[in-house]
Amino acid sequence: MKRRLFLSGAGLAAGAALASSLPKPAIAQDKIEWKMVTSWPRGLPGLATGAERLADRIGKLSGGRLTIKVFAGGELVPALGCFDAVKQGTADMAHDAAYYHIDKEPAAGFFTAVPFGMTADELNGWVYFGGGQELWDELFAKHGIKAFLAGNTGVQMGGWFRKEIKSVKDLQGLKFRMPGQGGDALAKLGVTVVQLSGQDIFSNLQSGTIDGAEWIGPYNDLSLGFYKITKMYYWPGFHEPGSALQCMVNKQKFDALPEDLKQIIAAACAAENDIMLAEFNGRSPAALATLVNEHKVQLMQFPKDVVTAFGNASGQVMQDVLDKGDDLTKRIAKSYFKFLKDAKAYTKVTEAAYTAARALKFRYPEG
Ligand code: CA
């Protein structure tokens, strides 16, 4: 009876009058639509799907108040142009890797991966609990950008080579795709290092414009089909021991958001940081088996002297970042190297010790 009364004309008018006298809650305010540019080919498993998942999660967590349209690399801006796009406001946010921008900020490499640097777990420790995020905020605030960790590939592979690498001198004269400070280190060993976005690697490798390329690891490399060009797949990828992906947001636009939407972006990025790593770890073992068993890919271990030479070259590159950087770059480098030193001592007696122990020969079920 009461319900029927409320639905009568008088009840509706009274209800409308009451509603209009109340202050409008923030949730009823304008819906925000943002553009997210990415560095990834559309639909690329792991990276592009991770960026899509991040955008979708922000939309759902916000109840549709902040929705994000995702652009593949090259659709709105060039695949390696995400930093400028967010800085200039062409895009509101981006998903890519910070080390694509070391030409602008050498310290950006620390927030993806540096050669012989931190693993994914160690990097998370530094960024979340070792002062890394605060330093990152300071670095990118110079460019009007706020960045979050938003994915990780784990340890990468050394890459695809068209000829066997038996010694350091086999590297000389090679044209090879490798970004970041790992690429700078490779250049010290006589390699002509080429920067290419993911979608341009296959055609350049096929045409012979480059002699080899690293991308990520089995899951992604299988989907891009590099095994069709060469069967030599080197390990390990000491140039990228756990590469983080980042979500960059135009800082002015981020700061203007209500607190709950800021928290939603931060939480969605933290979730994606975990889930993407789980996806790579979840899919890569089977992809590696497919590459080896179906496509007859040969797993090739880098000779020890090549690894050592790359280690020394990496050390020189990273020492240069420390020595030649401005004050902020120096502070970031010092913080990273100090954390790395302690992390190495810890990992030595935990993860590294355990995986070495697990690799010993003993009887154990294999499923
Ligand atoms: Ca890579």
Instruction: Describe the global form.
Output: globular
Radius of gyration of CA atoms, rounded to a whole number: 24 Å
Helix percentage: 40-55%
Task: Output the strand order for the largest sheet.
Answer: 7-6-8-5-9-11
Residue stretches low in confidence (pLDDT < 50, at least 5 long) are: 1-19
Major sheet summary line: 6 strands, mixed
Residues in β-strands, percent: 5-15%
The class by helix and strand makeup works out as alpha/beta
Number of strands: 11
Order of helices and strands: HHEHEHEHHEEEHEHEHEEHHEHHH
Bound chemical compounds: calcium ion
Please report the distance between the alpha carbons of the first and last residues: 66 Å
By DSSP (H or I, 4+ residues per run), the number of helices equals 14
Mean pLDDT: 93
Describe, in plain words, how this protein is organized in 3D.
By secondary structure, the chain is an alpha/beta fold. 48% of the residues lie in helices and 14% in strands. The protein is built from 14 helices and eleven strands. The chain has helices at 2-6, 9-21, 47-61, 82-88, 120-129, 132-141, 180-188, 198-207, 218-224, 251-255, 259-293, 304-324, 327-348, 351-358; strands spanning 32-38, 66-71, 93-96, 145-152, 159-161, 175-177, 192-194, 212-213, 232-235, 244-250, 298-301. The strands form two sheets. It has a six-stranded mixed beta sheet, with helices on one face. α3 packs antiparallel against α11 (259-293), α9 (218-224) crosses α11 and α12 packs antiparallel against α13. The longest helix is centred in the C-terminal third of the chain and has 35 residues, at 259-293. The chain is globular, with a radius of gyration of 24 Å. Bound molecules: calcium ion (CA). Residues 156, 214-216, 240 line the site of calcium ion.
